[in-house]
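Backbone-to-sequence.
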């Protein structure tokens, strides 16, 4: 297995936007491009309440979470004070205009983190009906 996995071209990522990269296990990785064509990768999960950072607004070297507008640093994954907390970041290698992520990190980094579920949670009654097919 090679050390780096080619994800896409830098130009495949919208300027001031992102792409999501699915993994065999764990949450997606969000790959961001800023106005300087710098590329960053974070787990697609805000350290506040798990919002999808890939849908946030990129500015400078930060992204504004779409849920409650926390500012998260793209280089370190950390919330800007006074907010607290960090989301895991992933190593990015850009060569020949192509974006690469670490194969090992994609397979094993931050697999324990899940997205908080919206709604009533596990106490809700199941609406499933067993049709009793024989
Ligand atoms: S979930 Fe991102 S700011 Fe609240």
């Amino acid at each position: 297995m090679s050390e780096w996995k080619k994800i896409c071209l830098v130009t495949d990522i919208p300027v001031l936007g992102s792409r999501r990269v699915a993994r065999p296990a764990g949450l997606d990785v969000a790959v961001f491009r800023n106005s300087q064509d710098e590329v960053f990768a974070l787990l697609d999960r805000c350290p506040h309440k798990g919002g999808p950072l890939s849908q946030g607004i990129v500015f400078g070297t930060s992204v504004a979470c779409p849920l409650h507008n926390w500012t998260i640093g793209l280089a370190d994954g950390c919330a800007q004070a006074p907010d607290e907390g960090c989301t895991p970041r992933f190593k990015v290698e850009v060569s020949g205009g192509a974006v690469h992520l670490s194969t090992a990190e994609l397979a094993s980094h931050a697999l324990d983190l899940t997205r908080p579920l919206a709604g009533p949670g596990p106490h809700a009654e199941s609406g499933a009906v067993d049709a009793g097919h024989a």
